[in-house]
User: Which sequence fits this backbone?
């Protein structure tokens, strides 16, 4: 069984914001694979289904971003999963341009509070993750204001394409392994081409 956690903030006011890329990818995953909603448990909205022949749990923590690890840890503990091999976390990254995704097997939080909390709760930074680019904050902007803001309509188009890429990447990790997905998506060929 695999846990797929998309990070974001619950509530209408946060929908489609930069910080909710994880929620957006999980929503698309649910739609594409027709994963039924199982309700609310372990501080998350979640569903159970099958992707690529594997049983999966998809979750959107309802704790707000900074406490995402509480929900993730409860799922890991309850289902006795190994977070280092049976979990994928999907979240926004300001170090990637909108439209880019990057896959990692492990790493630091890189200043992302949701990931920081997951690492603190699980006691490891060795877990699979898919980062979805939202672009760097403009000079002089407050980081919180920026990540809680929304994309321009032009940016939204490339971000929507990146959400599809991230869903494809989840499928590839499940079906072909993390290394195959990293080789496919982290290469220069997948970078957004400048017009």
Assistant:
């Amino acid at each position: 069984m695999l846990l797929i956690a998309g990070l974001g903030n619950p509530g209408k006011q946060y929908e489609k914001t930069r910080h909710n890329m994880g929620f957006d990818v999980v929503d698309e995953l649910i739609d594409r694979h027709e994963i039924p909603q199982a309700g609310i448990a372990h501080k998350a909205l979640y569903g159970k289904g099958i992707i690529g022949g594997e049983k999966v749990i998809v979750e959107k923590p309802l704790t707000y971003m900074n406490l995402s690890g509480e929900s993730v840890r409860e799922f890991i503990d309850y289902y006795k999963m190994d977070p280092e091999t049976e979990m994928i976390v999907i979240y926004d990254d300001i170090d990637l341009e909108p439209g880019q995704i990057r896959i990692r097997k492990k790493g630091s939080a890189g200043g992302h509070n949701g990931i920081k909390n997951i690492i603190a709760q699980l006691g490891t930074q060795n877990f699979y993750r898919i980062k979805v680019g939202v672009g760097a904050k403009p000079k002089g902007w407050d980081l919180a204001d920026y990540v809680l803001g929304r994309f321009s309509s032009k940016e939204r188009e490339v971000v929507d394409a990146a959400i599809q890429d991230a869903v494809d990447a989840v499928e590839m990790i499940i079906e072909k392994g993390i290394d195959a997905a990293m080789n496919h998506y982290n290469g220069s060929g997948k970078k957004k081409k400048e017009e």
